[in-house]
């Protein structure tokens, strides 16, 4: 997601929301660089991984993942403080920064993650930028631009539902509005599974990891959103959008509120946690 400048001089309109959000994500690692080999971990029938490459800035024709409305609403300073401006991604030249994430559709590149890096590179009159590129299949790329976002989102949603077994429509739907949203959720699940495998030092079944992700990461964030009526002033947005925004902006929120990063694997459910959960489920039957 994009790294826009944080608005200056505003007080957080909902400080209790951010505090509750940080509490449920207290053990969740901050956003990390995109997985370089996501396709080796999970099925992506609608995409081909083209890997890391240098892409001309002129070839990036648009964005498919804009979260500025969430930033304006929630990514502000703690009470009594002035919100800092998000710094450039790193020292040095744009070619030294982590790669941005692009979708390649019919020869045109669309920005998914790294908006600030692209903006700074353009201001510096740089010709190209390092990117991790994902290419949509030819039948999707042939769609007219006016309907492109909907078609891309539909392809990603179908793949997500088939891969995870989680609903993408209906009352309990996991339905981000960005065409890249379901792919970002898949990456979140893959990372959670890798953390589980690192913690337990064994292979962790995919669908068990999906259920663990839903129970320990996704649903707690959704519950916070519901308790604070987050979507009331954000028409057209969904709970999945809020989850993705919260995970992506976690480093800034922790910095603003003085919350330390968790230790590695701190967010992995322990064997005791799962035993208690099974006991609760058994008690309800």
Compute the number of strand runs. Answer: 5
- What is the CA–CA distance across the termini? 42 Å
Number of helices: 10
- Outline the biggest β-sheet: 5 strands, mixed
Short description:
The protein is α/β, with parallel strands linked by helices and 285 residues long.
Give a topology summary.
Blueprint: H1 15-24, E1 47-56, E2 60-63, H2 68-74, E3 100-105, E4 108-113, H3 115-123, E5 128-136, H4 138-141, H5 148-164, H6 181-200, H7 206-227, H8 239-248, H9 250-257, H10 271-284
Helix pairs in contact: 1-7, 5-6, 6-7, 7-8
Structural write-up:
Strand 3 and strand 4 form a beta hairpin. This protein has 285 residues and is of the alpha/beta class. The longest helix has 22 residues, at 206-227. It has one domain (15-284). Strands 1-5-3-4-2 form a five-stranded mixed beta sheet. Mean pLDDT is 79; it is low at 1-13 and 77-88. The chain has helices spanning 15-24, 68-74, 115-123, 138-141, 148-164, 181-200, 206-227, 239-248, 250-257, 271-284; strands at residues 47-56, 60-63, 100-105, 108-113, 128-136.
List keywords for this structure.
285 residues; alpha/beta; 5 strands
């Amino acid at each position: 997601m994009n790294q826009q400048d944080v608005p200056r001089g505003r007080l957080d309109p909902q400080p209790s929301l951010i505090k509750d959000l940080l509490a449920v994500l207290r053990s969740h690692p901050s956003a990390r660089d995109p997985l370089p080999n996501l396709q080796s971990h999970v099925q992506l029938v609608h995409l081909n991984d083209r890997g890391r490459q240098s892409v001309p800035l002129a070839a990036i024709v648009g964005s498919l993942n804009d979260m500025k409305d969430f930033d304006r609403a929630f990514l502000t300073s703690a009470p009594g403080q002035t919100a800092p401006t998000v710094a450039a991604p790193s020292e040095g030249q744009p070619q030294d920064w982590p790669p941005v994430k692009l979708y390649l559709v019919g020869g045109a590149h669309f920005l998914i993650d790294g908006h600030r890096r692209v903006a700074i590179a353009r201001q510096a009159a740089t010709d190209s930028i390092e990117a991790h590129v994902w290419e949509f299949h030819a039948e999707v790329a042939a769609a007219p631009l006016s309907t492109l976002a909907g078609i891309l989102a539909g392809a990603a949603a179908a793949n997500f539902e088939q891969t995870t077994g989680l609903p993408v429509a209906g009352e309990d739907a996991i339905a981000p509005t960005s065409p890249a949203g379901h792919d970002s959720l898949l990456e979140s699940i893959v990372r959670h599974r890798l953390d589980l495998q690192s913690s337990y030092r064994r292979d962790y079944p995919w669908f068990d990891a999906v259920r663990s992700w839903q129970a320990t990461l996704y649903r707690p964030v959704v519950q916070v959103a519901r308790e604070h009526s987050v979507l009331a002033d954000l028409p057209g947005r969904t709970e999945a959008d809020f989850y993705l925004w919260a995970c992506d902006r976690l480093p800034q929120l922790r910095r603003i509120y003085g919350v330390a990063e968790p230790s590695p694997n701190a967010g992995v459910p322990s064997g005791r946690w799962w035993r208690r959960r099974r006991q609760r489920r058994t008690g309800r039957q």
